[in-house]
Amino acid sequence: AGDGAARDGFQRSRLLPKKRQQRQRWVLCSLTYGCLGLGEPGEAGGRSAASPVYSSLTVSPGGDAAVAVVSSEQKVYDVVVKQAALLKRQLRPQQQQAAPPAVAREMDAPRGGLGEAYARCGEICEEYAKTFYLGTLLMTEERRRAIWAIYVWCRRTDELVDGPNASHITPQALDRWERRLEDLFAGRPYDMLDAALSDTITKFPIDIQPFKDMIDGMRTDLKKARYKNFDELYMYCYYVAGTVGLMSVPVMGIAPESKATAESVYGAALALGLANQLTNILRDVGEDARRGRIYLPQDELAEAGLSDEDIFKGVVTDKWRKFMKRQIKRARMFFEEAERGVTELRKESRWPVWASLLLYRQILDEIEANDYNNFTKRAYVGKAKKVLALPVAYGRSLLLPYSLRNNQT
Ligand SMILES: CC(C)=CCC/C(C)=C/CC/C(C)=C/CC/C(C)=C/[C@@H]1[C@@H](COP(=O)(O)OP(=O)(O)O)[C@]1(C)CC/C=C(\C)CC/C=C(\C)CCC=C(C)C
């Protein structure tokens, strides 16, 4: 169903009436302006109504402005629209309407079965992401357990390509992982941790598509070690991190008092995932290069007069500093885009999101403080700064949703 919908989305975006194309383009501009090297609005080369925002927007042979090649942003935006529509209708996709599996019902006792499965998810989450885990403790029990279950599925998926057995992972293994995902969405979990997610999807309107897309991202990671331009990198970041934002919104919930559209909240969640992943990439340039990987837009590297060899050599030069400044600026734009959306989440869900946003964004400051040496130094946010971020995050979580301030929507 997810694949079909994605195809529909692709077709739809090619055939969008002009007005809708313009509206979508505006929304996407707000997510991407500056991201293609454009300056601030009003700056020379900045965003204007005529700015070519999409890297792959083309003009048809007849000269008629048309979206002949759909950009990654457009494709992802179609997913956002679909996810938002599902949430609005509080409709579960067909796979999720299956009755809870017998195995899950038997396991619903607080200490045995499902209770234990969720507890194990919590332990894994605490082990890998302590600060985030602490943040989830503020959420209602049902939401917290659901976020843990999603976290564990994402972590396991990531471990397939990034963990100790990564060198043995084949596309076939990912196909098997995807079949397992389909089974758990159909109420047939394979193991205890899958059972927690299988239960979660019966409680929240979570769609399978972002999960499938994450697996697709891992497939990309197996075969692709270079990204031609930001459009390609954008797609990769959506697959491995933007998807996490889309999976999380139905659980975190939009505040009942919020006047924001579901689309804009999903857009913000996507932006936060992208911002986190771009930051992760910038922090890990040296580490990735040692594995032969360069998750940076090749065309922008070339524009800056840099080559793969320069990355492998790992010497900080003025060219590198200039290149990095541009990349950091882009990542910060996505964080900014996400901020408004966090205020629209349910009050009790905001703290962990603010905490992760503030902490992850600080990694960018640390890269600057290291004079852009991300080849041999790992940008790291110290304990004191981490601790300080928590009350700041808490303070922000008390703020009124942005859509309620001065009648903004
Ligand atoms: C509150 C919160 C942050 C919830 C998300 C919880 C969740 C389900 C996380 C899953 C993370 C995960 C294991 C993803 C697998 C792919 C991957 C590794 C992505 C990278 C994460 C960090 O990785 P890692 O732990 O290896 O990093 P360190 O090396 O330890 O630094 C990513 C960079 C992506 C993370 C993306 C998010 C957390 C998405 C955030 C967006 C939301 C929660 C939506 C919030 C809603 C609005 C409206 C803004």
Features:
Farnesyl Diphosphate Synthase, 18 helices, binds the ligand CC(C)=CCC/C(C)=C/CC/C(C)=C/CC/C(C)=C/[C@@H]1[C@@H](COP(=O)(O)OP(=O)(O)O)[C@]1(C)CC/C=C(\C)CC/C=C(\C)CCC=C(C)C, 0% strand, mainly alpha, 409 residues, transferase, EC 2.5.1.32
Task: Describe the overall structure.
The radius of gyration is 21 Å and the shape is globular. 65% of the residues lie in helices and 0% in strands. With 409 residues, it is mainly alpha-helical. Helix 7 (141-162) packs antiparallel against helix 11, helix 10 (209-223) packs antiparallel against helix 11 (230-252) and helix 17 (347-369) packs antiparallel against helix 18. The model is unreliable at 1-67 and 92-111 (pLDDT under 50). The longest helix has 26 residues, at 318-343. The protein folds into 2 domains: 2-70, no CATH class; 73-407, Farnesyl Diphosphate Synthase (Orthogonal Bundle), CATH 1.10.600.10. Bound molecules: the ligand CC(C)=CCC/C(C)=C/CC/C(C)=C/CC/C(C)=C/[C@@H]1[C@@H](COP(=O)(O)OP(=O)(O)O)[C@]1(C)CC/C=C(\C)CC/C=C(\C)CCC=C(C)C. Residues 129, 132, 147, 150-151, 154-155, 158, 240-241, 244-245, 248-249, 265, 268-269, 272-273, 276-277, 280, 338, 341-342, 345, 352-353, 356 line the site of ligand LST6JFWI.
